[in-house]
Design brief:
Layout (H helix, E strand, L loop, with lengths): L1 E4 L12 E2 L7 E4 L3 E7 L2 E7 L7 E2 L1 E3 L6 H15 L13 H18 L4 H8 L7 H4 L3 H20 L1 H4 L12
Parallel strand pairs: 1-5
Antiparallel strand pairs: 1-7, 2-6, 3-4, 4-5
Helix pairs in contact: 2-5, 3-5
């Protein structure tokens, strides 16, 4: 939730005032405060502004320095972009594609092991384009890679997946391994 307010006009030439009429696709209602819900790339953002002044405009966003600061900062950035007719841009906290790919590989390896596949079979299917001869497996570089992948998969399955819900924030320092 963002809180909008009216402050003394600035001397900056880039200072702008946001008119409520600029929220064309937003839901607006008045209670004790004026609430504005506007669509954003990550869902719906909530903007609250004080209506006691009777003004239908605001010129500042309040960003408390708390644990949700970065999330509010991104919502404010998306609001700024929407007010200026620009696309919202990349969402804050979205997993990078490389991380998604790594997690998919981890879970596929975990599923294969639960289905009874050997480490060599997992390596052949997930990591190699060619079959690995049994005599080469003992010293093969993919043997160690499969073991590392399965260790990461075990951490994910044992509760580490919950960290994905809080990404890019961590639930604890322990989960930053």
């Amino acid at each position: 939730m963002l809180r909008a307010t009216q402050i003394r006009p600035s001397v900056s030439p880039s200072h702008q005032t946001a008119q409520l009429s600029r929220f064309g696709s937003a839901a607006v209602w008045k209670a004790d405060e004026l609430h504005i819900l506007w669509p954003a790339s990550t869902g719906t953002n909530n903007l609250v502004t004080d209506i006691r002044s009777g003004a239908s405009e605001f010129n500042a966003i309040v960003l408390p320095l708390d644990a949700a600061f970065e999330t509010r900062l991104d919502a404010a950035r998306q609001l700024w972009r929407a007010l200026n007719g620009r696309p919202p841009g990349p969402a804050y906290g979205a997993l990078p594609q490389q991380t998604k790919t790594r997690h998919i590989l981890n879970l596929r390896a975990h599923d294969a092991r639960r289905a009874g596949a050997t480490y060599r079979e997992i390596a052949e299917v997930l990591l190699s384009r060619e079959p690995i001869a049994p005599r080469d497996w003992r010293d093969h570089h993919l043997r160690h890679k499969v073991r590392a992948i399965l260790r990461r998969a075990d951490r994910l399955v044992d509760g580490g997946y919950r960290d994905l819900l809080f990404y890019p924030h961590s639930r604890s320092r322990k989960s930053d391994r």
